[in-house]
Amino acid sequence: MSKTTILVTGGAGFIGSNYIRWLLEADPAVSVINLDALTYAGNLENLAGLENHPRYGFLRGDICDGSKLDAQLPARPDEIVHFAAESHVDRSIEDPSAFLRTNVLGTQAILDLGRRLKVRRMVHVSTDEVYGSLGPKDAAFTESHSLRPNSPYAASKASSDLLARAAFKTHHFPVVITRCSNNYGPYQFPEKLIPLMIANALEGKSLPVYGDGKNVRDWIHVQDHARAVDLVRTRGQDGEVYNIGGRSERENIEVVSIILRSLGKPDSLIRYVQDRPGHDRRYAIDDTKIHAQLGFVPAVSFEEGLKATVRWYQDHRTWWERVRSGDYQAYYARMYGGRLSSS
Ligand SMILES: NC(=O)c1ccc[n+]([C@@H]2O[C@H](COP(=O)([O-])OP(=O)(O)OC[C@H]3O[C@@H](n4cnc5c(N)ncnc54)[C@H](O)[C@@H]3O)[C@@H](O)[C@H]2O)c1
Fold first, then answer.
1. What is the CA radius of gyration of the chain?
2. DSSP string for residues in 23-42
3. 238 catalytic, yes or no?
4. When you count CB atoms within 10 A of the terminal residue's CB, does the N or C end of the chain come out lower?
């Protein structure tokens, strides 16, 4: 069986960790090197149980470190899947500097690393937020929609997409871009809408909803996103962009109400708060291309996926309580102290 070594950046975050778990299970011919700086969003507990997996290795490192990384990597990767990013819109409004550093300069550093190592494929994982906002009756985003990012986060991701495009056009570097809608599922940091609402409701705290709660997002279960990214990795075309969506547009307030109902909690916990500045009204994904070319269809319905996610947060209370208290950051020292590279 031929072996493929994949460098996954940001593999200790929400989507990266779900992708690594899914990939190691789905493909016995794949080995994974997880490169992650372990920022506040990186949590090795998301990968608990894989520490001694024969096809998994972890390297603590910063994607911005450029050529220093070449010597630190434990093996030469054949491919790269690039998730590492600063990902929270509210934090980007407070202070965009880390977003520019990691999402823009860091992505360029990973593109350069991939070129030096002559990898045969890189997937650059991006977001539908690069397209901007839609009105209620506008057609969904296609891959040729113009880039009109409205938050510093989205602007930094749009910049990284353009750098990936430039690497393909200038150097024929074999990179493919994915743009996905809002993910939900296990191991999502409880500052994002769905896990925040579940955790607050479980603690009997109020549920802060921005503005009138009628902002619309398209929701996809993280396992479907993982599968789509991997289809693009294995069967996508170099230089192409693929939208990935969940075919599940919902108003935020509807999502919050479903969560409250499924936990048997009252709507009186909802607290409307001042809207986020520049808050995009609606995102919607046209997934015709990935469906027609790669046969991708989301498998998890929003209702089933959300029910399972609520159950997961109920069953993994220790996980999110440790994230909220900051205790999760001691896990790295406990599990890996002194044994692994660190930058
Ligand atoms: N969450 C979503 O709904 C969503 C939707 C579409 C696309 N995306 C994209 O998917 C990717 C992953 O998102 P997520 O929600 O898992 O994010 P996350 O914030 O949960 O995880 C990001 C990971 O990147 C790591 N990281 C940050 N800066 C780094 C650096 N300089 N060097 C190395 N590692 C670093 C963090 O430690 C963390 O483990 C991002 O690129 C994001 O833009 C996310």
1. 19
2. HHHH-TTEEEEEEE---TT-
3. no
4. N
pLDDT of residue 343: 29
Length of the chain: 343
Choose which CATH entry (3.40.50.11460, 3.40.50.720, 3.40.50.300, 3.40.30.110) describes domain 4-336: 3.40.50.720
* Confidence tier at 328 by pLDDT (50, 70, 90): confident
Which pLDDT does position 341 carry in this prediction? 36
178 CA distance to ligand 1 middle (Å): 14
Distance 97 CA to ligand 1 centre (A): 16
For residue 188, the ligand 1 atom closest to its alpha carbon is 20
Which structure tokens are listed for 221?
Answer: 């279960």
CA 304, CA 208: separation in Å to the nearest integer? 24
Parse the chain into domains and list their residue ranges: 4-336
C-alpha closest to that of 37 among 102, 100, 132, 88: 102
Ligand 1 lining (C-beta closer than 6 Å): 9-10, 12-16, 36-39, 41-42, 62-64, 83-87, 102, 106, 125, 127, 157, 180, 182-183, 189
Q: Is 65 a catalytic residue?
A: no
**pLDDT, tens only, 136-169:** 999 999 999 999 999 999 999 999 999 999 999 9
Element (H, E) at 9: strand 4-9
Given a contact cutoff of 8 angstroms between Cβ atoms, the answer to whether 128 and 245 are in contact is yes
The rounded distance, in Å, linking the Cα atoms of 304 and 301 is 5
What is the rounded CA–CA span in Å between residue 260 and residue 201?
7
DSSP-derived pairing of the beta strands 270-273 and 175-180: unpaired
Q: From atom 27 of ligand 1, which residue's Cα is the shortest distance away?
A: 85
Proportion of the chain above pLDDT 70, given as a percent? 97
pLDDT of 338: 44
Q: Is 326 exposed, middle or buried (CB count within 10 Å of its CB: 0-12, 13-18, 19+)?
A: exposed
* Rounded-to-integer distance, Cα 128 and Cα 154, Å: 9
